[in-house]
């Protein structure tokens, strides 16, 4: 029975990752995607509750505390929904659903079968995304501009930054699964996937995705994992990032000379001008922020979280994630090289959040937070 519960649980998690990738592969206006796109928070939250209930015996006292906090945070967000112009329930439960997803992943460590399925899902998504991208470039006569990176692409079937992010994350996840499975010729396959990822992120002119992927390749190869395995002080970097992110963004927005983030500084500056004067907005959030004639959002996951859920929502989510990560400092638990690689990937996903809202967009959650889920899950044991 335990084996059946384990398999059902992991298949539900893998299903959400596959669906999340498929949304961006097909496009949000596709007939297969449109019916449930706006209800994704309910689907994801409901499936993760099922996984947690199936594995309820594994919950620790700390898990129960944060489940209670998640419920309290959601109730508070519902009561402030009118003020925040959150017309639908899903805009009140996003922080709680994120925590439910990470908790579900932690309760159900992946075995070789699960990792093989994860590898297959991400390789298929990567190849299909690359095929669709380069088919468009060739048909539109843009393939000759491949090396220019002139930012002429804005929208294909979906925003090019979305395309770049899918290519980046699927290539990283594929490499992590190959390494974990210890496949024959693994280094060759890893190099090929890295190359495809770099070519794809460059080809769709997504600078951020290209740089984040390049950073992961470099850090994953260079950082001394044996040292990081024994000395885990670096795990404090995650709560430190959560703590400093709003202040760093504010400093950048206020700087008149800084222009490293392709004019996002102006968006962030406008957000702080709107958000800071209202004490109620600071604590519990405000109506969705829109900027300029194109109605841009915050283009920053940390500001998006502050905008929609305030400091209270920010503290809930960041403290829950930090607690989950810092539990890995327990010297009695081993920390494998694969877990360290997953944590590096998640840290870079958090860095990616400085440029995009993706961390807080519910349809992205299974893709971006599965790195953390894989990292905090205990070593797999043979299920009876």
From TrEMBL:
The chain crosses the membrane at residues 12-28, 40-56, 63-80, 86-105, 117-134, 154-176, 233-253, 302-326, 338-355, 361-380. Keywords: Membrane, Transmembrane, Transmembrane helix. It comes from the Bacteria. The keyword Membrane applies. This is Uncharacterized protein.
């Amino acid at each position: 029975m335990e084996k059946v519960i384990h398999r059902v649980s992991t298949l539900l998690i893998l299903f959400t990752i596959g669906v999340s990738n498929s949304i961006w592969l097909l496009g949000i206006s596709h007939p297969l995607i449109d019916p449930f796109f706006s209800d994704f928070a309910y689907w994801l939250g409901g499936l993760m509750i099922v996984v947690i209930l199936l594995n309820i015996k594994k919950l620790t006292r700390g898990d129960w505390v944060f489940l209670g906090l998640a419920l309290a945070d959601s109730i508070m967000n519902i009561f402030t929904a009118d003020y925040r112009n959150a017309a639908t329930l899903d805009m009140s439960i996003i922080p709680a659903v994120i925590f439910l997803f990470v908790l579900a992943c932690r309760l159900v460590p992946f075995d070789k079968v699960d990792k093989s399925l994860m590898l297959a899902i991400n390789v298929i998504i990567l190849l299909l995304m690359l095929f669709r991208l380069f088919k468009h470039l060739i048909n539109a006569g843009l393939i000759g501009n491949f090396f220019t990176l002139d930012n002429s692409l804005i929208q294909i079937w979906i925003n090019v930054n979305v395309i770049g992010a899918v290519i980046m994350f699927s290539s990283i996840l594929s490499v992590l699964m190959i390494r974990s499975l210890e496949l024959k010729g693994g280094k060759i396959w890893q190099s090929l996937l890295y190359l495809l990822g770099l070519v794809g992120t460059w080809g769709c002119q997504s600078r951020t995705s290209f740089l984040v992927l390049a950073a992961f390749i470099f850090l994953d190869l260079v950082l001394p994992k044996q040292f990081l395995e024994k000395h885990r002080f670096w795990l404090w970097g995650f709560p430190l990032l959560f703590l400093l992110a709003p202040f760093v963004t504010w400093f950048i927005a206020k700087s008149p000379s800084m222009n490293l983030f392709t004019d996002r500084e102006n968006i962030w500056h406008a957000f702080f001008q709107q958000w800071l004067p209202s004490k109620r907005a600071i604590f519990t959030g405000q109506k969705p922020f829109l900027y300029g004639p194109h109605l841009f959002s915050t283009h920053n996951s940390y500001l998006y979280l502050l905008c929609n859920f305030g400091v209270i929502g920010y503290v809930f989510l960041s403290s829950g994630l930090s607690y989950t990560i810092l539990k890995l400092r327990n010297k009695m638990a081993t920390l494998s090289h694969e877990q360290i690689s997953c944590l590096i990937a998640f840290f870079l996903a958090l860095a990616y959040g400085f440029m995009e809202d993706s961390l807080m967009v519910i349809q992205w959650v299974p893709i971006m937070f599965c790195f953390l889920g894989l990292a905090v899950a205990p070593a797999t044991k043979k299920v009876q």
